[in-house]
Amino acid sequence: MLKSFKTEINPTDEQKVRIRKTIGTCRFIYNFYLAHNKELYESGKKFMSSSQFRVWINNEFLPSHPEYSWIKEA
């Protein structure tokens, strides 16, 4: 016999805002990763792995682009 459990969450308004920011940031980073790899491919370079991208975005891109500081808030 299989059992299942239903769970319902009821986040507060503050938690809803935080969830939306986090999901939006994840979506942006994923699309940015795809676009960056597309640029690398078109210029004849090798694809960047997700771990290489993480190092690049945190150590090179974000420090030189302060307009994207909202990424660190999520």
TrEMBL record:
Transposase putative helix-turn-helix domain mapped to chain residues: 1-46
Name of one Pfam family that matches: HTH_OrfB_IS605
UniProt name for this protein: Helix-turn-helix domain-containing protein
Lineage: superkingdom: Bacteria
Native source species: Catenibacterium mitsuokai
InterPro entries, A to Z: Transposase_put_HTH
